[in-house]
Amino acid sequence: MKHTDLTSKSCASPRLEVPGNVKLFIPEKVCSKMIHFAIENDRLVYVHFTGGCEGNLKAVSTLVTGMNVDDILDKLSGITCGNKDTSCADQLCSALRNAREDSED
Prior knowledge:
Elements: E1 10-11, E2 23-25, E3 32-40, E4 43-51, H1 54-64, H2 69-76, H3 88-104
Antiparallel strand pairs: 1-4, 2-3, 3-4
Helix pairs in contact: 2-3
């Protein structure tokens, strides 16, 4: 069985170019170490997870890119992973909520 170090892997967003307004979020209690994301006109236009389950996070990134932030929050908030009380998807929601709160200040 081949051992793979997932901490050095990253999951690319379906959007190839990185927008200039990318924010960084450091997730807690999950395998991913960083979430880079960008919101334009209340839509998630870019998301890039570093670390975590590569295939699953590529799928999440592909599915949510282009979606309205409220729709993402409705679908992914509260999702857990194993015996954890959160997940990478739930942490993305935390990032989106934080960004929304920051923009309202």
